[in-house]
Amino acid sequence: MYYNTNTFIYLNGEIVKAAEAKIDLYSQTLHYGYGVFEGIRSYKSSSGKTKIFKEEEHFDRLKNSANALNLPYQWTARELIKATYEILDKNNQQDAYIRPLVYAPANMSFNPNKESFIVIETWEMQPFLGEKLLRVMTSSFERPNPKGFKIEAKATGHYVNSILASQEAKAKGFDEALLNDMNGFIAEGPGANVFMQKDRVLYTPQLGNILPGITRATVLEICETLDIPVVEKQITTSEMHGADAAFFCGTAAEVIGMESLDNIPFKKQWKDTLGIQIQNAYKKLVVEKAFTTTSITI
Ligand code: PMP
């Protein structure tokens, strides 16, 4: 359950009880998947305080997503961050998932709107240890074509594609799906970006046909600090089948290793990969402010 009768949310400038909040059933978002959202995490930091990870980046992306879809957006990152800390505090949550959603008013046409609405919901989520490795399959679904969608926006409607891919993978006994782009190159998971390792180098799909993940950007920062070479390029499935290792990264998934792709195991044990070094650095980074190469205090 994501909420109970005592859970507070932020709704259009007010803090209200989740159980009592209402949305319009004629909202264009509900009918057509025309809305934008974010997935953010907060962690209990090493100082004991609650720390929202990369909060400005997430609220900036929310605004960019709204702009990409022509949704009116009247909020500042500052006020939304303040509101988020307030509801986390009222809900007594430190390790939490934070879900802002910008939604449209009642509108059964395809015409633009004069205003948008916003809700921020939070629920408890413990940091993930990432110990279980994922068995991944190449999805029969492709990611949405960037010529048909604003793929760089985190739009609600795009997630029909994620749900289909994820459900297909689970129905076939896998843990997760990996989707190609419309050109047949590896794109991303249903809710996470992907990296693979060959020798001492990491590879990840370049931006363009994927969501520009904030965790992906964080992994690139970690690699720079740890002197790990990364190449952003088009990757084929057969290249990935021969890789030493691979991992997904995303706000919810954090950094999580893969055991196999299409039942072909990766060559290296996870404990011997660059991925585990990045996973450890990431775990530190989310609860501390900085890291160094020696102590990995990112
Ligand atoms: N790709 C997709 C399709 C996603 O939904 C997500 C999760 N937001 C990501 C990648 C990873 O993005 P982030 O690291 O910003 O959570």
TrEMBL record:
Any Pfam family matching the protein: Aminotran_4
InterPro entries, alphabetized: Aminotrans_IV, Aminotransferase-like, B_amino_transI, BCAT-like_C, BCAT-like_N, Class-IV_PLP-Dep_Aminotrnsfr
Keyword annotations: Amino-acid biosynthesis, Aminotransferase, Branched-chain amino acid biosynthesis, Pyridoxal phosphate, Transferase
Superkingdom to which the source organism belongs: Bacteria
Enzyme Commission code: 2.6.1.42
Cofactor(s), names only, from the UniProt record: pyridoxal 5'-phosphate
Physiological role: Acts on leucine, isoleucine and valine.
Family, per entry: Belongs to the class-IV pyridoxal-phosphate-dependent aminotransferase family.
UniProt protein name: Branched-chain-amino-acid aminotransferase
Source organism per UniProt: Ginsengibacter hankyongi
